[in-house]
Write the structure tokens for this entry.
Amino acid sequence: MKIKLIDPKGTRVGLNTGLAYLAGSLIREGHDVVVLDFNNCLKDVEERLNRIKDADLIGISIKTSTVNEGLKLAEKARRINPEALLICGGVHITIDGITFLKENSIFDVVVVGDGEETIVEIARGNKFETIDGIIFRSGDEIIENKKRQISDLDRLSFPDYQCFDSISIYKSAFPYNYYPLITSRGCPSQCLYCSVPLISGRRWRSRSPGNVIAELREMQRIFKLEEFAVLDDNFTVNLERSKTFCKLLIKEKIGLKWQCPGGLKALFTDEELAQLMKLSGVHHVNFGIESAIPEVFERIGKGGKIDDITNMIRTFKRNGIKVGGTFLIGLPNSTKSLDKKSISLSMKMNLDNIMWGILVPYPGTELFNMIKMDSRYRFMEDWRNGLHCGNDVISIFESEDYPAQERIDMYYYANIRTRFYGNVLNMNDSNIKKAKDLLGFVFKYDPLRFFWHMFWILKALIVGVKVKTVRIGI
């Protein structure tokens, strides 16, 4: 089959690893696959979209933040090629697939959960009734088949980025200049706000270290890599596996720098891991901290204590690794004053970068149910309007003592105060608009330090750190 997969424009650059895995599986089956990567390249949009004229199957990846953009592309796709099978998948569809298909009859079928084997079976022409991992329409009825979760990740094809038109045609570099690597799926943790268990399952599944090394070898050959980043939600759940991976990198003399930007959990790290990571090429990790206020942190279900995190920050920095922290504004039991205190405390944790998101409740999480049931909270917006970061975030809920607008203001203040400027920008905006927005946010939320901020912004630009890397001022 001739298959076109589409990644809509979003608010953050980054290659869609899910589509790359689907492409790899389809190409192994002998299909002709092209990924139209509008998220990382917006050149010649209409011309590229016309390439779907000869497609037998068109697939669109949809995140919650790209629902509207994805639907616009679906409507155009139907007009250009009304005969093709039109499907969609992605994290939003896995969370909300039934409602989405009911509201959007333009799609023939939606894919939920691990999609590599599912899309291959769809492309083979198997009857929908026999395919796990899909929701489809039969007459007026919506039918949801068994969700698919792949246990043996080593049997999957490596992700294929050569078929992304942003790379093959427009010769774009990897966003952030690193190769995106996924080594595991799922999350066994009990964080009350997290949707990862809903998306990839509570059962943690991992690739063998040897299989991951083989992927890096292959991608080194194809792309002449200098760096990769492990984007797992839980890279170190199995501490010994993480150490084995580091030892293999050293033994095999891979020679690549690497980092873990996704957020490590302090409970699943130790000094030996920090030492091995440094020896194997790690230069930067992030810890998922969420709040620096102990009474807030200890009630969100992450486990452990703030002291565990501060100890591991010291450990990793002692071993020559830069350490960042990811935090959330508006957690349960937090208030404006507590969040402001959390911002101040975060700046005393000796972190190299501090990134703030605004809390978004997702259906199926403990947080979502709590907001529905607890009279102290109320929804202000449909959850599908929520964005964790960017220049137009919305707080979709509020509490009696923490109004929605105060949460939004605190989000902008937090990122400006800790100099994570890129988090308040839309990465697909023009440089002029990004500069205008950034100056406006600085002047509004931290005017007394305006010239101090200008110093850091100019310093970052001088040393060549572009706004789109989301690391200005580090």
Q: What stands out?
A: Confidence is low (pLDDT under 50) at residues 464-474. Residues 93 and 99 are 9 Å apart (CA to CA). The chain has two domains: 2-144, 176-418.
